Amino acid sequence: MDKNLIMFGSVTLAMKCRELLRNNGIISKLVRTPLKLRQKSCGYSLFVPADFEFAMEIIGRYKIPILGTAAVDIQ
After folding, report:
1. H/E stretch holding 16
2. Best label site of 8, 13, 48, 75, fewest CB within 10 Å?
3. How high is the mean pLDDT of the chain?
């Protein structure tokens, strides 16, 4: 399974990135980070079902910090 989850240190950053991705034509969904992946953070992530590498490129352009990425199965 390819990576599809981007984890953030705050819900505010996750929401900012969701809007940024939407403005670039990438669909994402704000979700709670699965318990097994949570670090010492608020536990919010963006689920990006397609165009993951492009999404990461956009987030990187704006130097928005992320906690990590993962591959998950979210319904």
Report:
1. helix 11-23
2. 75
3. 92
